[in-house]
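Late entry, evening session. Most of the bench is empty. Finally got around to the prediction I had been postponing all week. Sequence below, unchanged from the version circulated by S.P.
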Amino acid sequence: MMKIIKIILLLALTFSVFISEVFASKKIKIGLLVPLTGKNSEIGQSIIKSTRLAVNKINNSSIEIVPRDTKSNPTDTLRAAKELKELEIKIIIGPVFNKNQVYLDEIKEVTFISLTNKGDNKSKNIINAGINATSQLNGIKKFIELNEIKKTIFLTPDVDYKKEIEKAIDSSKIKILANYVYKTDPTKLTNQIEEITNYKRRKQSLEDEISRLEKSNQNNKEKLIERLKKRDTLGGVKFDSIIIADFDESLKSVTTSLLYTDISPKKKYFITLNQWFDESLLEEVSSQPLYFPSINKKNYEDFSLEYFKKFGQYPNQLSFLSFDLVGLVYYLILQNNSIIDEKIFTKKNLFKGKVGVFEIKNNKINHILNFYKVEDGEFKKVF
């Protein structure tokens, strides 16, 4: 079993004396490619602040974070990356968005740790560090196996990350009966869910049974009919759990449609992807329990509070990831005898940061996620 390395704590406590001796005359420069102007500037500013927190935790004046503005477009991202390369920076955290990676394979001497969660990356000098779909499905797969759930269906919206989900289903080897792709248009959604759950057939079965009893001479038929009339459908479905690969209001629309078709989370497992502890889900009582994989909740709350005390505002989710990445880069440089090159990312270790446990493999960071459920108005840890 690989050793789990607690990156921030280890750096702050164990290496403090050694670091000051080794890097007394040498700066460790880490580049940062984030949007500092335009519509996504708040994201970039928040990420810069979180990297400052990480540097303060490590407590070494040798570290220097060098930010550059990507303006959220590929051309400016390339220009900014070249500026950082001219400063002899070999490791850059960023860019934030997957679309801004397109030209970065031109700068092969630099390793980029992108904050995107896209799993498909063909450039050898880019590592995707976001909470990717495969990591999430690995968490769901563990939950399904622990609960001995045998029949699972997948509901995937027909949106840009559909292919990402389909690839993750294959790579995680999660066992499902079928993957149904649905249109997110609310006017079409309910009809699609009706088809998936065989709602009309089950509705008709109920009406047929009531009609049969009314015409029969069966004993206690009045009580049976009264009981049936309290139901919406008759007959089961072929699945035990539903994985809904959706978020925000669209996710709520799907769960509402499932409830309409008489599929209840009290009888079938409702599972979704990482929701970053969206508090609006706490109000959706009829859709609970709702299960999902995610990062370490306590660490996320502690980080958010520390960030708020320092800057007077709460961070975005990407800030949480970037905090860990500063510690990761710094630790790997130390372990590589202070030599900064692409080899430092080939170490076969599990790392434990604020986000949780993760590893670097095949040009992406895979997270071993915790699992939670929304129930009784709160987020409860499952494992």
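Two things to note before I forget:
The chain has two domains: 4-129+297-365, 134-296+372-381.
The longest strand covers residues 28-34.
Will write this up properly tomorrow.
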